[in-house]
Write a structure and sequence with these properties.
The chain has 215 residues and is α/β, with parallel strands linked by helices. The protein has helices at residues 23-43, 57-64, 124-133, 149-159, 177-186; strands at 47-51, 71-76, 92-95, 108-114, 134-145, 189-198, 204-213. The chain has a single domain (24-213), classed as Rossmann fold.
Length: 215
């Protein structure tokens, strides 16, 4: 039996960089959101689910973007996520595990999954679930850390360590942008567009990729 992962105490700690005292860190992480919203707009999707939504920051950006959705939902493993239903209208938040969600087959035109998949040691199960809940030729937008030497150096400057020290932590990185993309391609997704932040190689810290399901 797999031991449970150590959960962040607060929902806001899912991506603490959104609230960092460092303005460069705040800018970079919010640029990810702007980029993801831009890619969502290119898909012209009307139904979307945000997988691993944290405290709903991407949903706020989507709601403020002017994009129209007939079905907008968001899930996270943190039990406090359902409290967001009291403060954010226009989206339904639920506590679910990405290994197996409660959504119907082919329910969504698109899914966003920002800085989530790197936390899975085995990507086959979440990738299969994402394909299940997407419509044929549905879209997936991911953001993943490059885990380059430059990335790790900046993480050490900001956090005091090169990599999350405890594998049992929900924040531990088993994957990087390259390994996630390889797994998605092997799992039936084709990359359509890739953007690097903040700059191209060798100063890339994140890859934000728009994929299309080949099913």
């Amino acid at each position: 039996m797999t031991e449970p992962r150590v959960m962040n105490e607060r929902l806001e700690d899912s991506v603490p960089e959104y609230y960092s005292k460092n303005p460069a860190a705040r800018w970079l992480f919010r640029q990810r959101l702007d980029t993801a919203v831009s890619l969502v707009g290119k898909t012209r999707s009307r139904s979307l689910v945000d997988l691993g939504c944290g405290d709903g920051m991407l949903i706020r950006y989507l709601l403020d973007s002017g994009l129209a959705f007939t079905d907008l939902q968001a899930v996270d493993v943190h039990p406090d996520v359902e409290r967001l239903n009291e403060t954010l209208t226009g989206c339904r938040f639920s506590c679910q595990n990405l290994d197996r969600t409660q959504f119907a087959d082919g329910q969504f035109d698109a899914a966003t999954c920002l800085d989530v998949l790197e936390h899975f040691e085995d990507l086959s199960v979440p990738i299969r679930e994402i394909r299940r809940i997407l419509k044929p030729r549905g879209y997936l937008i991911t953001s993943e850390p490059t885990e380059t030497g430059f990335y790790k150096l900046l993480r050490f400057v900001l956090k005091g360590y090169f990599s999350k020290p405890d594998e049992k932590s929900i924040d531990y990185h088993f994957q990087n942008a390259a390994s996630v993309q390889t797994a998605l391609v092997e799992g039936g997704f084709a990359p359509v567009t890739k953007r690097s932040l903040p700059l191209p190689f060798p100063l890339h810290l994140f890859h934000i990729v728009l994929f299309e399901s080949k099913q």
